[in-house]
Specification:
7 strands; seven-stranded parallel sheet; 41% helix; 8 helices; alpha/beta; single chain; TIM Barrel; 2 domains
Length: 208
């Protein structure tokens, strides 16, 4: 079964561009409201909502995530870095799922997958903590065999294949090759018993 999760981060980007100085109580005349957007997305048929609570809080804020988590209808997927502060936040919040992602203050958006091989011990600790708390854990990784294999060994039940290279190549000559990499990665992951998600740069045009 294919399910659709929508990332609503950039509704918050627009809000923050105008109301950055508002410290509490997003709502009322402050718009666009990501929480209200999440409700509209679900009414339109979305199966879940994804938000990335970044260290620099450039778009989504903690209060947004708390309000989304309090909604009984929202299957909330929290993208997060493997930092002590985010681990503590997620364990208190208990979203439906978390997705571990790399993060850099210098990047405009996430530029690549999490290097599970390089950060094996850190990823293992976070995955174990989330699994113990009953929070489904996904690793946002490039479609590389060694990354997928290690994700399974670390007992992450889900992975999310980074589709950025495919999205960037969609109108170029590398589209078929990037799509083939994603297909091969998904097949490998399924063979290892992993649930496979895919995302980054996907839109109405390149999803077809």
């Amino acid at each position: 079964m294919i399910l659709l999760g929508l990332n609503i981060d950039h509704a918050a980007t627009l809000r923050q561009a105008r109301y950055r100085q508002v410290e509490a109580g997003f709502g009322g005349l402050v718009e666009p409201d990501p929480v209200a957007l999440a409700g509209l997305c679900e009414k339109a048929g979305a199966d879940g909502i994804t938000v990335h609570l970044r260290e620099d809080r450039r778009h989504i804020q903690e209060e947004d995530v708390r309000l989304l988590a309090a909604s009984k209808s929202t299957r909330l997927n929290l993208e997060m870095a493997c930092t002590p502060a985010m681990i503590e936040f997620a364990l208190k919040l208990k979203p439906h799922s978390v997705c571990l992602v790399p993060e850099s203050r210098e990047e405009i958006t996430t530029e690549g997958g999490l290097d599970v091989v390089k950060h094996r011990d850190k990823v293992a600790r976070v995955t174990d903590a989330m699994n113990a708390a009953g929070i489904k854990t996904s690793l946002f990784i490039d479609p590389k065999p060694e990354q997928i294999e290690l994700a399974a060994k670390l007992k992450a039940p889900w992975i999310e294949l980074h589709t950025g290279a495919y999205a960037n190549a969609y109108h170029g000559t590398g589209r078929a090759a990037e799509f083939a990499r994603l297909v091969a990665g998904a097949r490998q992951a399924h063979a290892l018993g992993l649930v496979v998600n895919a995302g980054h740069g996907i839109n109405y045009v390149n999803i077809a």
